[in-house]
Design goal:
single chain, 166 residues, mainly alpha
Length: 166
């Protein structure tokens, strides 16, 4: 199935999409591609907000804002997000829902990628309206949606791990 179709299906049935991704076998390169794709889309989502910021602060050029966002989202964030995925696996083990490190990474990275269209919307709204109540509420709603996706996918991965043991 196409990547965009899987992203759309993730909002309707994240469990099924996660099971399909796990059934494809352990492919670390694919999980890394999901992470890099999510980070790239989140980086692009920052552009409207950064353009607005560059207009408000003319002494700092737009390219400086873009360079900082690029460094953060494309070089630093992937390394940190691998650490967050390891903490997710540890949390699942502590909750007696053991899943493999690979399944935790896949669920986390896919949830980031599936939620990235919402980040694009948030970036557009932040660029048009600037900081305020609407931007904050939308950001919170995106965070809730991301965690909903993540928890559903981690639950599906734990069920698959339990079914594999049985």
């Amino acid at each position: 199935m196409a990547l965009t179709d899987d992203i759309l299906h993730s909002w309707r049935s994240p469990d099924r999409v996660m099971r399909n991704l796990l059934a494809d076998g352990r492919r670390e390169g694919r999980a890394l591609a999901f992470l890099i794709g999510a980070c790239l889309l989140i980086f692009l989502a920052q552009w409207p907000r950064l353009a607005r910021l560059a207009q408000q602060e003319p002494e700092i050029p737009f390219q400086a804002f873009i360079a900082g966002a690029m460094m953060g989202w494309l070089f630093i964030a992937p390394i940190l997000l691998y650490g967050v995925a390891a903490l997710l696996q540890l949390a699942c083990r502590l909750l007696r829902r053991p899943i493999s490190g690979w399944a935790a990474r896949l669920a986390f990275f896919w949830a980031l990628l599936a939620a990235s269209p919402l980040w694009l919307l948030n970036g557009l709204i932040a660029g048009l309206l600037g900081p305020g109540l609407v931007t904050s509420v939308l950001g919170f709603a995106i965070l809730v949606a991301f965690f909903w996706l993540l928890l559903r996918m981690l639950a599906a991965a734990a069920l698959e791990a339990g079914a594999a043991k049985a």
